[in-house]
Design a protein that fits this description.
Blueprint: E1 7-8, E2 12-20, E3 24-31, E4 39-45, H1 55-72, E5 81-87, E6 90-96, E7 100-102, H2 103-109, H3 115-134, E8 137-138, E9 147-150, E10 156-158, E11 165-166, H4 169-174, H5 191-194, H6 200-216, E12 224-225, E13 232-233, H7 242-251, H8 263-271, H9 275-278, E14 284-290, H10 297-300, E15 309-315, H11 317-325, E16 334-337, E17 342-345, H12 366-406, H13 410-417, H14 427-454, H15 458-465, H16 475-498, H17 503-511, H18 518-549, H19 553-560, H20 567-588, H21 654-660
Antiparallel strand pairs: 1-2, 2-3, 3-4, 4-6, 5-6, 7-9, 8-11, 9-10, 12-13, 14-15, 16-17
Helix pairs in contact: 3-6, 3-8, 6-7, 12-13, 12-14, 13-14, 14-15, 14-16, 15-16, 16-17, 16-18, 17-18, 18-19, 18-20, 19-20
Length: 662
């Protein structure tokens, strides 16, 4: 943590720490490079060690805040970015300092805001949010502490863009998101944002919750929803016109498709309300004129022109119209100037101002005083008529409330009784009747809630029993049951997360646990841990899978050890880890000893010893075979030629032979 007088980048001198969040620390600092050293805000990026997300992802979010401020900072109601830098291993951004107070202070300082004040507040917020949405940015963390009413002009300034999400119009409607870290604030964050799928309508939901908080004086954790529809039930806690109530109802619908698509559409719906709609429940005033001819500005708080100024006396609308019609005093639009403020008085808020010229010294204007006396008498008569009509209306409200009570329509009974103020003569009777209605209603609700809890529907049972008023006899029993049911609901949510791996359903269920119970406090602590552990486990599982494909077995083991120690993640990563450990064991196994190769020698033939085996003759079994005659193929032989005749010499006569040899 930085200390006072620390100098950053040779320019920003730390004055004091002013806040901290999930991703860093915020400081008030002086800008030493500008004349008079004006104040600015310096944000230091310092994620909590239990955040779970990777440093790269958190740096991406931090850079997005700087980019958003740079792109949006030219709007008058968004702080300007002054610098974005790093010093050593730390990252910082400097932005414009807005002097004023947060909306949290305003909501805490009054029980309920008047409807006209809430309308102006909504317009201020939606105008700047329209600019944000038109630049394709979802803020994602709209809450009273991020809305500052600037001291110089009382305008609402939107701060803290550390959770922004930049989208295209197409992606915003489909819910596609590249950020896997659930960001937002409990009570102002709708279901789709808790599921990491924010839309423009998610910001509208947060603005609507702020409006309900202003009208009812109730914190988000004190609000309840209808178990049948899932929609918020709040109007019976507020004095609000049907027109404004309908606009706010649409802003806080449980499903984003039923809300206004973006801030521009919500602003258009709000601006479409006519002045008659907005002033349907406002008081009317008849004029009583008091002349102050001799008083000084310090005594009256007004200008010193000795103008006559009216004092408003509330009367009924009919009397107000009658008085105005008689032209006793015509409604005018003028200004009452004081040393402290400038108030515009118009036809829509008919407080009347009658101005006269300063009387001259030693003169007396009888006509003026007679006129004033007449107007005063009319005002007193109007006040009397108003008191009579007011008393009659309250009596009628009591009678109608009793009728509703007899029909077991307790909501209508209580709505009627809220019309009776504490200073009315019927206030005591109304209070007693209200407690009676609440007690009967609480008894019925508790019976219904117990039936649901018996069937294991703890969430629905809590939604019915938790809002039971502390003024009813059933309150103590209801809170005991709610605490018991909350413990069971937390067990179910924990099982969904750890055993079944259903993070979104687990978070949604845990968020329904009342904050005042011990289980609710545990849930508030567990939800961010679940989300961080899930993001970390998911990233490491992907890393182990990728390393397995690359056969980087050591990285597989290292990444698999970083997943959450829950049955779901342990079972999911077990095959990868076992494969890697087996491969590593195989690689690390000792190699078998290598012996010297044998010396080559000429083969030596060794004749085997002769073994005499006596022959064994086995006569074959005689087999008779049928003789088969096969005629020989005919062979052609060429006939031999006739032999040549032999020469036989003729025989010699015997005498000749004998004579020769004789």
């Amino acid at each position: 943590m930085l200390t006072a007088q620390t100098n950053l980048a040779g320019r920003y001198q730390i004055v004091q720490a002013i806040g901290s969040g999930g991703f860093g620390q915020t400081y008030l600092a002086k800008d030493l490079h500008l004349p008079n050293h004006p104040l600015c805000v310096v944000k230091q990026f310092r994620p909590h060690p239990d955040q779970g997300a990777t440093i790269e992802k958190l740096l991406e979010l931090f850079d997005k805040e700087a980019k958003a401020l740079y792109n949006l900072g030219n709007h008058d109601c968004i702080p300007r970015l002054l610098a974005h830098f790093n010093e050593g291993s730390e990252f910082y951004l400097a932005q414009e300092y807005i002097e004023g107070h947060t909306l949290t202070d305003e909501l805490a300082s009054m029980t309920k805001m008047h409807e006209s004040h809430v309308i102006n507040l909504l317009k201020d917020i939606l105008e700047v949010l329209t600019f944000v949405h038109q630049n394709n940015v979802i803020h994602r963390d709209i809450k009273p502490s991020n809305l500052i009413r600037r001291k110089t002009d009382a305008k609402i300034v939107l701060i803290d863009f550390g959770a922004v999400k930049e989208v295209s119009r197409g992606k915003a409607q489909t819910g596609v998101t590249s950020v896997s870290i659930a960001i937002g604030s409990y009570g102002y964050m709708p279901d789709e944002q808790a599921a990491n799928k924010p839309r423009y309508a998610s910001d509208i939901y947060a603005v609507g919750k702020i409006a309900i908080q202003a009208l009812t004086g109730m914190r988000p954790d004190q609000m309840s929803d209808d178990p049948a529809t899932g929609e918020l039930v709040w109007k019976h806690h507020a004095q609000v016109s049907p027109q404004l109530g309908a606009v706010i109802d649409r802003m806080v619908r449980s499903h984003f498709r039923d809300r206004y698509a973006d801030a521009a559409e919500a602003l258009a719906a709000l601006q479409s309300l006519t002045s008659e709609d907005c002033n349907a429940n406002t008081s009317y005033f008849a004029p009583t004129v008091i002349s102050q001819p001799e008083q000084s500005p310090t005594q009256t708080g007004l200008s010193s022109n000795n103008d006559a100024v009216t004092v408003g006396i509330p009367i009924s609308p009919n009397v107000a119209r009658t008085v105005a019609a008689q032209n006793f005093v015509k409604p005018v639009k003028t200004e009452v100037v004081s040393s402290a403020a400038r108030t515009v008085i118009s036809d829509s808020n008919p407080t009347y101002v009658v101005t006269t010229k300063p009387p001259s010294v030693n003169s007396f204007n009888w006509n003026l005083w007679l006129s004033l006396a007449g107007i005063a008498s009319i005002g007193l008569a109007g006040f009397g008529a108003y008191a009579w009509m007011r008393d009659r209306d309250f009596q009628n409200a009591i009678a109608e409330a009793k009728s509703f009570q007899g029909k077991a329509n307790y909501d209508a009974c209580l709505d009627k009784l809220t019309l009776i103020p504490k200073d009315a003569a019927q206030a005591k009777e109304a209070k007693s009747l209200s407690i009676s209605c609440q007690s009967s209603q609480a008894k019925d609700k508790l019976i219904s809630a117990k039936g649901l809890a018996k069937d294991g529907k703890y969430q629905e049972a809590i939604a019915i029993a938790n809002p039971i008023s502390a003024e009813t006899p059933s309150h103590a029993e209801a809170q005991t049951e709610v605490s018991k049911w909350s413990d069971s609901l937390l067990v179910k949510a924990t099982d969904l997360y750890s055993k079944e791996g259903k993070l979104e359903q687990a978070v949604e269920m845990a968020q329904k646990i009342p904050a005042q119970t011990s289980a609710g406090k545990k849930a508030a602590d567990l939800i961010p841990k679940w989300q961080s552990a899930w993001t970390n486990s998911e990233a490491n599982y992907k890393e182990a899978t990728a390393a397995s494909k690359k056969e980087d077995w050591k990285k597989v083991v290292s990444a698999s050890k970083q997943v959450a120690d829950t049955p779901y993640w342990t079972q999911k990563v077990a095959p990868l880890r076992k494969q890697a450990e087996d491969k590593i064991a195989l690689l690390n196994a000792p190699a078998p000893p290598v012996s010297a190769p044998p010396v080559s020698q000429s083969p030596v033939y060794t004749a085997p010893d002769p073994v005499y085996r006596e022959p064994v003759y086995t006569a074959p079994d005689p087999v008779y075979r049928e003789p088969v005659y096969t005629s020989p193929d005919p062979v052609y032989r060429e006939p031999e030629p006739a032999p040549a005749p032999a020469y036989i010499p003729p025989p010699q006569p015997a005498s000749d032979c004998n004579a020769r040899h004789c």
